[in-house]
């Protein structure tokens, strides 16, 4: 976005010195310049918001808002954010005076002539915008991150103008409600009830939220803390099976965070709502966390990884109460700070609750593959990025802030020391409580606790993208030289600690390495037959692989680290997919750790569908079908049985294998100790509808009739056209996605794209790539933060053809001025396409 100031910076400074007022030119969104100006001028901000929400989601929502704030200097017609049509603004009062409605580029201009220095009072009647209200049959939930509050009601929508919110909601009397603050009172009038909430704590606009609708309300008191949950799950057995664990995990997370930070839970209450088909895993609204219902209400016999994922998600959102909600980034270029601390703390929090889990292993498999999936690409982005306008803030989100940043933070903790790091974090939280802070603010604090130059360290790790490549040079039999190379040619060095393990016939010996130069020498105590790079999984980069014969000697973390090394080297073209597959099969047959098993099976799926051509897949298909069916039957533990069943379902291609699956789905074949939920049957029906096209209509019709939960039924109804065997039906369905209203439930859309672009349909669906890329800018403007990456990933992820590569390359070449952040998203999503194309040419 262009600079909003009409004058150049020198002229603007001169204007202040000679007493002239600055001139702010409006532009869509919230520019950095506008935000900085308002931050300097506005304080003591308070919103009183009333909304009348009808049961029918098609009817408008009437609202009125009173905004009070202290204005330091009355310099300009002050822009108030409201991204809606002019006719949604009904009246504006400024300090008791009626004001003309001046509406420009998503802003209501508050006239300077009616404003004053000191306390101002603004009253506005309006019709709420629906873009971020997520209105569904029977319920509604708000989702205002990063700058979407302005799509619903008028306000100053920027994170560094924290405010108190006084909310009143008039809703149908059979609806429930929660918001950021406790309920003050309820008033029933005829068939509606007005819920008046207390003043909220001081929070940023993206954290303001409420949920209303036909929900069940459950309240528990755990460790002396009362918590309330809203949900819409109709399976009472599922609810009862999960309920106590959900509340207990929240309570234990709060207790851990209070102990670690030295700050008691800082807000008035702690409630949460479980939303069907929620866009994210969760969102950390103060006092009213929102979760995707299926992430917390687990099916029967969940795997260790599912249980751990739920605990980590709960710990993540709870950690945000301190990291993000109590102390908030000043601008969304530092959104990663709240996410890294939530992820980093979540990894610490879940350890006590899962003593049988190898948490070093969990950290490794959860973060490294996802971080590498972006950092190896042509579209790699730095952890900290430039953000000129909040309307591009959604593009900041992705694997780099959720997965690379925790790796970086762990390296930082090792550099500073665990105890000193905790002390620095406590100082940071206490210093900036209920205010805003930047990453440099934190670095300045931690610098006092470290010997190293953290600003220099941060410059490479935080402010630049990419990863180093490592080599090991054998100078002598017991003298190794570890070389760190910058693949970009910029001669950067990523200072980092990791281990190297020397292996010989009699023993394995680990050596601590600190690589902070292009070359690091290490003296071994004896000659090694082979070496295992990054054997503790702490290092970050592309490491050389060891002898593939050494796996039997490795511990769990070493195995995972080496599997990741091999996977990354395979994508670089250094290892053939079939060679890796032959290594994986015996490991899977004997693997006991579910985290490792999932990593191994994920690699098999990647090779099977993406890196083998049609002939190569057919050569291994029968062998893998037999292997996974037999392994599934052998398992006594239900969760492991389901893991192998789902793997079998994913790779099955032969008529015999598909017939087995069809009998399971039709309940003509029952497998002992295999417990399938309604969601499992829906997933199985979706797979069969694609792989058994002659039965597609029959399968989807029967499955729809089986579904009892109304939210689940609506989802499957939406997906049915994407499962159709009729190409014309699928084409027509894709055309409907070009209309914004048909993309409202984004998780449904992403599931549908997965069906359209299934590996068995690539020749018919490749024509969707170009129009999908052409829609991306609109997707970014109208969708939520993860939707652009999800849209491009589901569109491009399974392709490998020359023609698909050409479509992407040509699209970007013909648009030299294309939005930079979206160009990065495309290049990130296209990386599997580019690499699969090259790998197939080399090895098939």
| Structural class assignment | alpha+beta
Q: Major beta sheet, specifics?
A: 8 strands, mixed
Quick one: overall form? globular
Distance between the termini: 46 Å
Strand order of the largest sheet: 5-4-8-2-1-11-14-13
User: How much strand?
Assistant: 15-25%
How many H/I helical runs?
28
Q: Segments where pLDDT lies below 50 for 5+ residues?
A: 1-20
What would you report as the Rg, rounded to the nearest angstrom? 28 Å
Number of distinct beta strands: 28
Fraction of residues in helices? 40-55%
Q: Average the pLDDT over all residues and give the rounded result.
A: 93
Compact description:
43% of the residues lie in helices and 18% in strands. Helix 5 (304-319) crosses helix 6 (335-353), helix 13 (577-590) packs antiparallel against helix 14 and helix 14 packs parallel to helix 16.
Verbal overview:
By secondary structure, this protein is of the alpha+beta class. Helices cover 43% and strands 18% of the residues. The protein contains 28 helices and 28 strands. A hairpin with a 2-residue loop joins strand 9 and strand 10 (139-141). Helix 14 packs parallel to helix 16 (638-651) and helix 22 runs parallel beside helix 26 (787-796). The radius of gyration is 28 Å and the shape is globular.
Strand and helix map with partners:
Layout: H1 9-17, H2 32-41, E1 42-52, E2 62-71, E3 78-81, E4 89-94, E5 97-99, E6 103-104, E7 107-110, E8 118-127, E9 135-136, E10 139-141, E11 163-172, E12 176-179, E13 183-189, E14 192-197, E15 210-213, E16 216-222, E17 225-231, H3 236-261, E18 271-275, E19 282-283, E20 289-292, H4 293-296, H5 304-319, E21 327-329, H6 335-353, H7 359-375, H8 399-416, H9 418-431, E22 435-437, H10 439-447, H11 454-461, E23 469-474, E24 479-485, E25 496-503, E26 508-515, E27 519-523, E28 530-532, H12 556-571, H13 577-590, H14 594-611, H15 614-634, H16 638-651, H17 655-665, H18 678-691, H19 696-706, H20 710-723, H21 727-736, H22 746-756, H23 762-765, H24 769-774, H25 776-782, H26 787-796, H27 802-813, H28 820-843
Helix pairs in contact: 3-5, 3-6, 5-6, 6-8, 7-8, 7-12, 8-9, 9-10, 12-14, 13-14, 14-16, 15-16, 17-18, 18-19, 20-22, 22-26, 25-26, 26-28, 27-28
